[in-house]
């Protein structure tokens, strides 16, 4: 190759490099914008909305009863009396199924109940589980007007929100087997309050 060919080859190479540089300068602001712009987020699946409490006419249960383990016998008898008055009553023993997960079962029953009732006793006041049920029953009572009935069966100091409600006081009323009729009157009052809401 002679000197002229070599010079022409070098000039062509330099011209190609210079034109590539000017082309890069012309589009580099577009490239940097693309490189620094946030990548559009991939939409995450939206979880379904939390089910809303059923309207009273569509509730599966008239009332959910929360209580401490030690009060189970009293609650069984009490719930039977409410059922005799034509009410559908849910509590953990009624809604639980073999293999079911307790927290899900109870949450569903509370959500599907038109109203809530908590049996206040020393046993229930010391139960962490009952405190959780209390919160789950009290919140819809405050927010949407569901009836919440505190039922007192032992000497306890009610939590502040429960104390704002009229209580059904069964202290000294026995189990309904006595002739004074106090127990039955209290059950009738609760049944009437649940039906009238």
Topology:
Elements: H1 3-36, E1 61-66, H2 72-84, E2 89-90, H3 92-95, H4 102-111, E3 113-120, H5 122-125, H6 128-144, E4 148-152, H7 160-163, E5 168-169, H8 182-196
Parallel strand pairs: 1-2, 1-3, 3-4, 4-5
Give a brief outline of the structure.
This protein is of the alpha/beta class and 197 residues long. Helix content is 51%, strand content 12%.
Total beta strand runs: 5
Shape: rod-shaped
Mean pLDDT, as a whole number?
A: 80
Main sheet summary = 5 strands, parallel
Return residue spans where pLDDT drops below 50 for at least 5 consecutive residues: 46-56
Biggest sheet: strand arrangement: 2-1-3-4-5
Number of alpha- plus pi-helical segments: 8
Radius of gyration from the alpha-carbon trace, in angstroms: 35 Å
Alpha-carbon distance between the termini?
Answer: 106 Å
H-E string: HEHEHHEHHEHEH
User: What class, by secondary structure content?
Assistant: alpha/beta
Helical content band: 40-55%
Which percent range describes the beta-strand content? 5-15%
């Amino acid at each position: 190759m002679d000197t002229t060919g070599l010079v022409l080859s070098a000039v062509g190479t330099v011209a190609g490099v210079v034109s590539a540089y000017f082309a890069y300068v012309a589009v580099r602001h577009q490239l940097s914008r693309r490189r620094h712009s946030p990548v559009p987020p991939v939409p995450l699946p939206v979880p379904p909305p939390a089910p809303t409490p059923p309207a009273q006419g569509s509730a599966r249960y008239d009332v959910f009863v929360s209580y401490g383990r030690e009060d189970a016998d009293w609650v069984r008898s009490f719930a039977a009396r409410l059922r005799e008055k034509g009410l559908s009553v849910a509590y953990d023993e009624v809604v639980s199924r073999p293999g079911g997960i307790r927290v899900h079962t109870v949450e569903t029953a509370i959500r599907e109940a038109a109203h809530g009732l908590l049996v206040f006793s020393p046993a229930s006041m010391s139960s962490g589980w009952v405190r959780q049920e209390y919160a789950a029953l009290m919140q819809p009572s405050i927010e949407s007007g569901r009836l919440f009935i505190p039922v007192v069966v032992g000497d306890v100091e009610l939590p502040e929100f429960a104390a704002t409600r009229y209580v059904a006081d069964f202290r000294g009323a026995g189990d309904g087997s006595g002739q004074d009729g106090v127990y039955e009157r209290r059950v009738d009052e609760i049944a009437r309050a649940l039906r009238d809401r």
